[in-house]
Amino acid sequence: MKLLRKTFLLFSIIMLIGCSDNLQEKGSPKYVAEIKEWHSKRIENLKKENGWLNLAGLFWLKEGENKFGSDKSNDLIFPENKSPKFMGSFILKDSIVILKVNSGVEVFLDNCEEVKEMELKHDLQKGTTILDHGSLRWNLIKRGDRYGIRLRDLDAQLVKNFTGVDTYPVNEDWRLEAEFEPYNPPKEIEIPTVIGTIEKEKSPGSLVFKKDGNQYRLDVTDSGNSYFVIFADRTNSKETYGAGRFLSVNKADSTGRIYIDFNKAYNPPCAFTKFATCPLPPQQNFLKLEVTAGEKNFGEGH
Question: 188, exposed or middle or buried, with CB in 10 Å at 0-12, 13-18, 19+?
Fold first, then answer.
């Protein structure tokens, strides 16, 4: 019996040592510091006024009048104790949304000019209309043929209590050289969203890379100086967010090389809030691979 206990203890120690080795950082001090600085900036961006931690509501508009305020009889119910019971209405007609503010209620445009009635520009238009009342801020969004009001609370508890996002230890082995294979002409790909719609985007090509002797590819969209990637892998719903992660990949450098750095894989907004309208990975971007790099899941996810 004593021999059995000693054997079990020795086995446990070996397993702990093995796990400890797996959790160690790997890479040059300069590279590790670079990734940590990138992640630190990422956390700061999440906490900003236009970050994802302060979302307080997402309300889809119906055709016609949509009353808003804190009273439960409204079509759009704003937070109690932070807004009057009856603030006004959003009028949706023929793809145009007009705001009408009730008498005695203060609503400001860009935190300076009081407004009573105006046409709203949505988030896909230049000069998106930003409105506020107290700590609340909102704007019109357009998704497909649907229009909604995205509400933020600049005094949100999640921002105050936010301590960061867990990540895998930095591992330079997950910085992989890739080849860009262009589509001529660009290929239209279907990107599903969490709200059940399908967005069609143009993909200029795919990134092809190898890991542990196996070849993989990811369709990308163009983001100017970089490619945007939405991908899923076998860590999803286990250690990472169930609906996949995002990645930004710099275009070819002066030497013509492209690197995919999975240490910079990050959670979509929906990992932090149920009030986001995240795109999901297209089917072809599901990797039969455990990507043990980048951000892990946040809380219980959404």
Answer: exposed
In degrees and rounded to multiples of 5, residue 19 shows phi and psi of: -65, -40
Q: 234-282, pLDDT tens digit by residue?
A: 999 999 999 999 999 999 988 889 999 999 999 999 999 999 999 999 9
- CA atoms 250, 254, 256, 257: torsion sign: negative
Domain that holds residue 64: 55-155
| Position 87 in a domain | yes
Which of 155, 186, 216 delimits the end of a domain?
A: 155
Distance separating alpha carbons of residues 56 and 52, to the nearest angstrom: 10
Other CB atoms within 10 A of residue 2 CB: 6
HSE value, Cβ hemisphere, 13 Å, CA-based, for 91: 9
> Strand, helix or coil at 80?
coil
Neighbours of 11 (CB within 10 A): 10
- Residue 259 domain flag: yes
Closest CA to 159 of 273, 257, 287: 273
Classify 297 as helix, strand or coil: coil
More confident residue, 298 or 256: 298
Q: Are residues 130 and 178 in the same domain?
A: no
Q: Which residue has the tokens 């203060």?
A: 106
Q: What is the pTM of this model?
A: 0.86
Q: Which of 125, 155, 185 is the last residue of a domain?
A: 155
Answer yes or no: is pLDDT of 4 > 50: no
Q: How far apart are CA 126 and CA 162, in angstroms?
A: 31
The count of other CB atoms within 10 Å of the CB of residue 30 is 7
Q: Is residue 292 part of a domain?
A: no
What CATH code is carried by the domain that includes residue 133? 2.60.200.20
Q: Where are the beta strands (DSSP E) in 157-225?
A: 175-192, 198-211, 214-222
Task: Tell me how far apart the alpha carbons of residues 254 and 201 are, in angstroms, rounded to a whole number.
Answer: 28
In DSSP terms, which residues pair with 143 in a beta bridge? 146
Same domain, 198 and 135: no
